[in-house]
Amino acid sequence: QVQLVESGGGLVQAGGSLRLSCAASGRTFSSSAIGWFRQAPGKEREFVAAISWRGGITYYADSVKGRFTISRDNAKNTVYLQMNNLKPEDTAVYYCAAGPLTQIAASGYAYWGQGTQVTVSS
Q: Which contacts qualify for 40-48: CB closer than 8 Å, 24 or more apart?
């Protein structure tokens, strides 16, 4: 099993930056793909970014491409989401999730964190 804890959320002005962290415990973390998802009030959970277990494969949603960067440090059991040029529409609860394959579908991830709130003011 993998346990995940997100951190790094907060309130930021439009155009600002935040770096989210997803700290993991469990023997299988280093062999798991990690995805970031977000859910805004009244909306469905949506894919943001994903990274393969070695870090060689990354996927991004079109809405964040060029602004967000996903990376991982398996020695620290941590995955990061660097978010630059934030927009009010990025406001959401951000979740990280672990699964066997690098993919954009939430259903493919078996383990989820509790989420961290990101609020971007205009």
A: 40/91, 40/92, 40/93, 43/92, 45/95, 45/106, 47/104, 47/105, 47/106, 48/81, 48/94
Cβ(3)–Cβ(26) below 8 Å: yes
SS3 content of the chain, % helix, strand, coil (to 5): 10, 50, 40
What's the DSSP call for residue 101? S
Mind listing the pLDDT tens digit for each residue in 69-118?
Answer: 999 999 999 999 999 999 999 999 999 999 999 999 999 999 999 999 99
Picking from 43, 47, 32, 44, the residue whose alpha carbon sits closest to that of residue 104 is 47
Residue 41 phi, psi (nearest 5): -55, 130
| Two structure tokens written together for 35 | 């995805």
